[in-house]
Structures are given as structure tokens and as C-alpha cells.
Design brief:
Helices cover 66% and strands 3% of the residues. By secondary structure, the chain is mostly helical. The strands form 2 sheets. It has a 3-stranded antiparallel beta sheet, with no helix packed on it. A two-stranded antiparallel sheet has the order 4-5. α5 packs across α15, α6 packs across α10 and α15 crosses α16. The protein is globular and about 60 Å long.
């Protein structure tokens, strides 16, 4: 079974409980051992570890191998293949948990009356929901591209999957925090029937801490990210500089021209600095900062590529307004200043969230149905 198929099968379990989702991925990634020594305790019989988050998952005291590991990197051995499978599959499948939290937050926002209307009548609440959904769509596009690379056994898979794992986990945690603010006191009071929001927010925030191969994803990518940026055929930063990308955005998504130009400029500056040797790895903080920046630019490339491939379909990935919203949120992270999304983008994303919550459908496309081509 491919990673993409495993993720699609596990997402419904993640919607119910992150621990159940990890159980569903066990044939692919095996039984996980908890990261660190201060996040949990050993069960009385010594057979497994228990933690404050992911409360029903039985972390092994040592990692246990998968029963059906995919040979992602045959040359480097099955152990390395398992690391790539974990980094590709867990963040992509964990989108199911955020998806469920988003749907619950929409239901809550419609049921909660404030100031003569519902929560979603409040502009700030609508902005929070739109921002969380945009981050979820970005995470979906990025993790989908990583899954495609891993399943294709691409040479670039190790670094691209590591970058995706780092940023996808970050996006999931931050989007979940947006949802927690939207839910207000319902979040921390765990008020039925919306207690699922608190559970998913807690578990998504802890995921990258408790799973060692997710916790060290960025440092492992930093060592190879400069060589990847120098590869004209596969780097995400260089993809943003392609003239045909700018042309199609100007033609079909004029609202995104400015934000794409700013991201392309950031990509050009990053590539130029790498080519000039200005981002050496002697300083570990500088290396991590470069890797994080490349992860953001990779996400921008994945969002744009998904939009280009999906054009003409009814998928949210095909909507130029949704694409623009994702790029604006990415730009905010690049410049470390996150302004609110414009009202037209908020209206489009909130309408999509409301429609999907009403129908019970996923809010993101999912890697097995992804239109994103390998980066």
C-alpha cells in the first residue's frame, strides 16, 4: 500500500482521535516510541509509555517496526525508509484532526448567540476561521507534494519530506490555536458536544514533540537544503521564479499577482544568497532559519502548483481566492508580520467552510486525490 493510500485510510480515524489515527497508520510506520524523557511516564507493567496528550496512544518504550514498510529509500535501508514514511504520512493524515476541529468550530459558531447574532456574524471570528482554513489548505498542498515525492522514491524526497513535516506540523498547531480562540470558553471548558475541539487542539500541538522523527525534521533538512536550493530542476524557490507561473497568475488570478511577486522576490534572494555562499552551515541558527524559509517557499510553490493543476474543477484548490489567501498567509510568515486577510478572501473561505461543515465533507483535498505534482 502506498503512503498516499495509507494516509487516506487513516484520515477518518484522525478525525475521531489523533491516537486512533496513529493506530491506523501502524501497518505503515510501526508502533512509535515517545520523544524525549519528560513528556510521560512508564505504565505499571513497563510495557508502554503514557503522556498527557494523545492519552489513548500506547507509545512503545522502543520503536517497533512496521509490518508493511514502503521501500522509500532502498539504498539507505528500511530504517531510513521508515523515517520518511513517518514524516510524510503522519502530518498529512493529521490534517483529518484539524478538519474535524474546523467543522466542529463552524457548528459551534452557528449555534452560539452573541450580540444579537451568531459568532460567525462577528468579523474577527470570520477572520479567524478563514485564517485557520487557509493554513489547513496550505498544509494539505505541501504534505500532498511530499507524499507524492515519497511514493515516487524521488531523490529529493528526504529533504522535501523533512521540510514538509516541519512546516505542516507548525501549520496544524497554529491553525488549531486559531480554532481554539474561535471556540472561546467552549475550548477550555470542554462543553458538549464540542469537546472534540479541545482534544484535537491539544494533540496537534503535542504531535511534533512526542514523535521524534517529526521533532528533528528541520535540523535534518538543514544539512541538505542548500544543495536542494541549488538544483535548478527541483527546488521550490526556483519554481516560484518561472515566467510561466507569473503569467498564469496574472491571467487567471490577478489578485494574487502582488503577493506572488513578493514571494518570488524572497525566493530569488534566498537562491542568490545560497549561490553566493552567504548562508553557510557553520552557524546552526542560520542554517535552521534558512531551512524554515525554504519550507515556506516550498509551501508557496505547492499551493500554486495545486491551483494550476486543479483549474477547471470544483475543488477549493482551484479557486484563485483560496490560493491567494494561502499565499498571503505564507508571505506573513516570511516577513513575520501577519495582517488580516482581505474581506473578499475571508468571505470565500468562510462560505467554503460552512458548505463543507453542512455536507460533512473534508475541507481539504487529501494526498491520494492531490493535484499537486512532485516539486
Amino acid at each position: 500500500m502506498s503512503i498516499a493510500e495509507s494516509v487516506e485510510r487513516a484520515r477518518p480515524a484522525f478525525q475521531r482521535d489523533v491516537s486512533a489515527g496513529l493506530d491506523a497508520l501502524e501497518p505503515l510506520i510501526g508502533r512509535l516510541a515517545v520523544g524525549g524523557t519528560a513528556v510521560g511516564g512508564t505504565a505499571p507493567d513497563g510495557s508502554h509509555l503514557v503522556t498527557s496528550a494523545l492519552r489513548t496512544y500506547r507509545f512503545g518504550t522502543t520503536a517497533q517496526p512496521a509490518s508493511d514498510i514502503v521501500p522509500v529509500a532502498v539504498v539507505q535501508g528500511s530504517g531510513f525508509a521508515r523515517v520518511i514514511a513517518i514524516r510524510a504520512a503522519v502530518p498529512a493524515a493529521a490534517l483529518g484532526a484539524l478538519d474535524a476541529a474546523l467543522r466542529e468550530s463552524v457548528d459551534y459558531s452557528h449555534s452560539r448567540q452573541l450580540y444579537g447574532g451568531t459568532v460567525l456574524d462577528i468579523p474577527h471570528a470570520r477572520s479567524l476561521l478563514a485564517a485557520a482554513l487557509a493554513d489547513a489548505l496550505t498544509a494539505d498542498a505541501l504534505s500532498s507534494a511530499a507524499v507524492c515525492l515519497a511514493d515516487a522514491h524521488a531523490p529529493a524526497a528526504p529533504v522535501a519530506v523533512a521540510l514538509s513535516a516541519h512546516l505542516t506540523c507548525l501549520l496544524l498547531a497554529e491553525a488549531a490555536q486559531q480554532v481554539s480562540v474561535l471556540a472561546g470558553s467552549t475550548f477550555y471548558a470542554r462543553i458538549a458536544p464540542f469537546e472534540l475541539i479541545e482534544q484535537h487542539v491539544r494533540d496537534l500541538s503535542a504531535l511534533s514533540t512526542l514523535v521524534p522523527d517529526l521533532a528533528d525534521a528541520l535540523p535534518s533538512a538543514a544539512a541538505a537544503v542548500e544543495a536542494w536550493c541549488g538544483d535548478a530542476g527541483s527546488t521550490a524557490p526556483r519554481a516560484l521564479l518561472q515566467p510561466d507561473v507569473a503569467a498564469v497568475i496574472a491571467s487567471d488570478a490577478p489578485g494574487a499577482v502582488e503577493v506572488h511577486a513578493e514571494l518570488a522576490a524572497a525566493a530569488g534572494a534566498t537562491v542568490a544568497a545560497v549561490d553566493a555562499g552567504g548562508h553557510g552551515t557553520a552557524d546552526p541558527h542560520q542554517a535552521l532559519e534558512l531551512a524554515h524559509r525554504v519550507a515556506l517557499l516550498t509551501a508557496a510553490a505547492a499551493v500554486i502548483d495545486g491551483w494550476r493543476q486543479a483549474r477547471g474543477s470544483e475543488a477549493i484548490a482551484a479557486d484563485p481566492l483560496a490560493m491567494e489567501a494561502c499565499l498571503r498567509r505564507i508571505r506573513g510568515r516570511v516577513v513575520r508580520r501577519q495582517p488580516p486577510l482581505p474581506t473578499d478572501l475571508v468571505a470565500r473561505l468562510v462560505a467554503h467552510a460552512e458548505a463543507r461543515a453542512a455536507s460533512g465533507e473534508e475541507m481539504a483535498i487529501g494526498p491520494a486525490r492531490a493535484t499537486v505534482t512532485p516539486l
